[in-house]
Specification:
The protein is an all-alpha fold. It has twelve helices and no strands. The chain has two domains: 178 residues; 121 residues, no CATH class.
Length: 375
């Protein structure tokens, strides 16, 4: 009874893992398609999309209902062939994605080279499945099934190709890790750990099949360890492949929140200078995003300060923020009384390399203006 409970729990864990994996791969596929739509894509980008799509479909095909449906309209065992074929295509695409270009081999050339072992593996899977007795085609790997030569060859072809692909990816990722920094290094490290675990799992599966088919050894725990390593490998691989997507999403959300706060923080300064120089306010169309609103506010404030610059002395650039706020108040009052001056205008706040650098000095000045208003 305890064994039955453990096996049932194992089936549930595998089912949950497959469902989570399918959802993550589907989300990653949508993200990749959106990236290609926005930025375009070369061979590497297309290969990553193909890899994610193939792995997503592989997890879909592994479902019991889908497997039964495919076998009913084709032949018994077709779903298993399709599952491993999709895994093989996905791994082949990953080889192209992670390929580290050398002096004599380009990514395009490597893609052409990888087509040869992939086609050989796919043909081998199809032929061996047709030779396997019908009653064994849907059975799981065990000592009994591995003693059938056709079944053993099918598993060996699938495992050997996956091992080859995983090893090729590991070698390439190790080279990229030497150059990677930041979040990309984290992502590659997780992918590397996952692929190493998956490689170990497929190697143990090969050892089990060889031993069982030749009756040289019968070590059941090899399959158990292989399954555990595969689960850990899939989890690490999923985290690694989704990490850039999740980071990009988090960066977008946090940027929007920060920019929304910055827009609110710039309100005192923006209100002060645009009341005096309303012509700098840009026309509004629709509801702009927080980042666009912040950019508009920065441009409008900088333009207004430029118009007010003749009423501000050179000391404006060296005094503290409180003194700047007082000088700006006086300049606004004088501008409203005297109108646009005839003197030359100048840039009061130097620009930065990005929006955050442009907004930073204005945020400090706006805080000083707000304190002056409340004081």
């Amino acid at each position: 009874m305890a064994v039955g409970v453990i096996e049932g729990a194992g089936v549930i864990v595998v089912g949950v893992l497959n469902t989570v994996a399918a959802v993550i791969f589907a989300a990653a596929l949508c993200w990749r398609l959106e990236q290609i739509r926005r930025e375009g894509g070369g061979l590497q980008s297309v290969a990553m999309t193909v890899a994610i799509a193939a792995l997503t479909l592989a997890y879909v095909v592994s479902g019991d209902d889908v497997t039964a449906a495919i076998d009913s309209v084709t032949f018994v065992g077709a779903a298993r062939v399709l599952f491993y074929a999709l895994l093989a295509v996905g791994v082949a695409a990953l080889i192209v994605v992670f390929f580290f270009p050398g002096r004599s081999t380009t990514r395009e050339r490597r893609a052409g080279i990888e087509a040869v072992p992939l086609v050989v593996a796919l043909i081998g899977l199809q032929i061996t499945m047709l030779v396997i007795p019908t009653d064994l085609r849907t059975e799981g790997l065990s000592v009994w099934t591995a003693r059938n030569i056709a079944y053993a060859l099918f598993v060996l072809i699938a495992s050997a190709y996956l091992t080859y692909g995983f090893v090729a990816c590991v070698r390439s990722i190790r080279q990229f890790l030497r150059l990677a920094e930041g979040y990309l290094r984290t992502s590659l490290g997780l992918l590397l750990g996952g692929l190493v675990m998956l490689t170990a799992g497929t190697v143990l599966q090969i050892v089990f099949v060889v031993g069982s088919s030749t009756r040289s050894w019968h070590v059941r725990w090899l399959l158990d360890v292989s399954a555990v390593l595969s689960v850990i490998g899939v989890v690490l691989f999923l985290i690694g492949i989704s990490y850039p997507m999740l980071r990009a999403r988090w960066h977008t959300i946090s940027s929007r929140r920060r920019h929304r706060r910055d827009v609110e923080a710039l309100a005192p300064l923006w209100q002060l200078v645009t009341d005096a120089v309303p012509e700098v306010v840009l026309p509004v169309g629709g509801t702009p995003a927080p980042t666009m609103t912040l950019h508009r506010r920065v441009v409008e404030i900088r333009d207004a300060l430029t118009q007010l610059s003749p009423y501000l002395t050179d000391d404006f650039g060296v005094v503290d923020e409180a003194a700047r706020a007082e000088m700006l108040w006086a300049a606004v009052e004088e501008y409203q009384v005297s109108g646009r001056p005839r003197g030359a205008v100048r840039e009061l706040v130097p620009g930065g390399p990005d929006l955050a650098a442009d907004a930073d000095p204005l945020l400090r000045l706006s805080a000083a203006v707000a304190r002056l208003e409340t004081g």
